[in-house]
Amino acid sequence: MRPDMRWRLEQFGALAWLTALEAMRQPVFLLLMAAASFFAGLLPLITAHTLGEAERMVRDSALALHFVTGLVLGSYLACAALQHEIRRGTVAAILSKPVGRLTLFLAKFAGIGLVMTLFSAALTITTMLATRAATPENYVDWWSEGPLLGAVPLAFLIAGLINYFTRRPFVSNAFVLLVAALGGALLFAGFFSDSGELVTWGQPLPWKILPAGALITLAILVLAAFALLLATKLDVVPTLSLCSVLFLLGLMSDYFFGRTAATSKVSAVLYGLIPNLQQFWLADALAGGGAIPWSYVGAAVLYAFCLLAFLLALGMLVFGRMEVKA
After folding, report:
1. Measured distance CA(101)–CA(301) in Å, rounded
2. What does the DSSP 8-state code read for residue 256?
3. Which residue range is the domain that position 229 belongs to?
4. Is 150 part of a structural domain of the chain?
5. pLDDT tens-digit series, residues 133-145
């Protein structure tokens, strides 16, 4: 590898890691993630009148919470990573060094994408544990529910002790520990049946949720790329508002534009330009013992990659031409 190429990759990696670290240190991000995880964990306890559909109601509610929370957090982190640093003069200071604008923009997205992927992994684990806890009719599986509800306070307690004794940042430590605690809860729950008997690890876990969580992760990354594009010009509230509009239009794209795309040029253009987020929301496919094939997830990865390439290219074009003041 050429020295200049290695230097650019090291520069990109350093900027991406700093962006991810700054994102993990956002108190709003930690609070929303912890609240979403804890509330999803409460769903098996507070869901009533299920009519034999407790598993489906908890699963669909947790997946929806995952999707909406990802939309909010992706929009907030995009503005915190770009628009807020532009106003503070941080971006101008970085660009005064031998750092290219395109490198900086892509590194910002890479850092946000890393943190949002960890967030999605945590919420996917939460959905799996909450769904398993609600599976037995008229009964809560505490071998799954207990570790899930204990993950948030345990992560906060350990992060608080680390902060007290070592003065290390609480928020970023709590974020990492929360992801680790949820992973530990999944590991623990996988060894026990709902009656507490030891089983082969993973047997009682609803693995069919993994493809659904992966698809939502792809959609969240697409929305984060759109938010980063908007963050070149807009602050949090307008960015979140426009991302919410794209979110709703994307979920209803087939209904609004798909039906008339063959007969209307305007509908055909809008149907092609607006990301079809319905392709990433397949909760209904899990009903009645159904499953999402991984081959479909692979095709969705290709579709998401095309959307990301378009949005990031547009964002680099806007960011490359805008004036950044110190």
Report:
1. 27
2. I
3. 3-321
4. yes
5. 987 667 788 999 9
Q: What DSSP letter does each residue of 137-205 carry, written as one string?
A: TT---HHHHHHHHHHHHHHHHHHHHHHHHH---HHHHHHHHHHHHHHHHHHHHTTB-TTS-B-STTTTS
Q: Where are the alpha helices (DSSP H) in 232-323?
A: 236-251, 253, 265-273, 294-321
Determine, yes or no, domain membership for 21: yes
Angle at 198 between CA 206 and CA 290, to 5 degrees: 15
Q: For residues 325 and 310, give the distance between their C-alpha atoms in angstroms, rounded to a whole number.
A: 27
Closest-CA residue to 17 (of 7, 9, 28): 9
Q: Quick one: tokens of 259?
A: 């039906």
- Using one digit for the tens of pLDDT, what is the confidence trace for 238-276? 999 999 999 999 999 888 888 888 788 888 888 888 899
Single-letter amino acid code for the residue at 8: R
The Cα–Cα gap between 312 and 106 comes to: 8
How many structural domains compose the chain? Answer: 1
Burial of 225 (0-12, 13-18, 19+ CB in 10 A): buried
**pTM of the complete model:** 0.94
